[in-house]
Amino acid sequence: MNYEETLQEIALADDRYIVLTAENRAAIRNLPAVLHQRFIDTGITEQAMVGIAAGLALRGRTPVAHALAAFLTMRAFEFIRTDVGLPNLPVKLVGGVPGFLSDANGPTHQAIEDVALMRGIPNMHVFCPADEQDLVIGLPHLLASQNPVYIRHNPLASVLDHDSHFEIGRAECIADGTDVTILVYGMLFKQAIEARRHLEAAGISVRLLNLRMLKPVDEATIVAATQETNLLVTLEDHLMTGGLYTLVCEILVRHKLTPNLRHWL
Hints:
Layout: H1 3-13, E1 17-21, H2 32-35, E2 39-41, H3 46-58, E3 62-68, H4 69-74, H5 77-85, E4 92-96, H6 114-119, E5 125-127, H7 132-144, E6 149-152, E7 172-175, E8 180-184, H8 189-201, E9 206-210, E10 213-215, H9 219-228, E11 231-235, H10 244-254, E12 260-264
Parallel strand pairs: 1-2, 1-3, 3-4, 4-6, 5-6, 8-9, 8-11, 11-12
Antiparallel strand pairs: 5-10, 7-9
Helix pairs in contact: 1-7, 3-5
């Protein structure tokens, strides 16, 4: 099943789910004919859409709101912070073509600071799947959560079968190793797989962790990797500030650890 089919199944099983979009239907184009009045297109009005979603949540609904990630997280940031995060409403925000997935549209459409923005909002969870299979595995758990959630929508085909066991705030260990740990999330997962293959061919033992979530993050697994391997490498399509690299640095400082740390962008 893909993202749209999974969301449709969940929504049809529970009429509390309302699907919204700010004229971004690419991933959910077939849902209006299925959900009827439970599908709302607000037009290119990300701020209004977030306000509407907050109102629906206050009425006992679970809104799943879609917009281009750059405009959802930046144009509507204050609305997300004040109307969704602070009151801890179960609004689910789905950012389309986040990071470098929007490469062809240029820098105005590249959300390479979205994780930092959403991590900073009180109560917000942040889910960054490696591909569509990973997205589908985690989606039911995040939609059922009582927290607000920001989801980086990722339609890429999977290069391997992910672990179907999903826990909010837990990483997926793809491979164990003792020399280097690669920490990755999102669209660069394929590149991390390739990097590990080349390094293993050169005789370097590589631990590969698909973090899945950047908030809450699997701090224990990161600390263990720091203590059990000689080098940490973070790989992400995000600015260094506020993203995975910053997050790992915060964890290491908190635990008074000083590993060899590198960042790939």
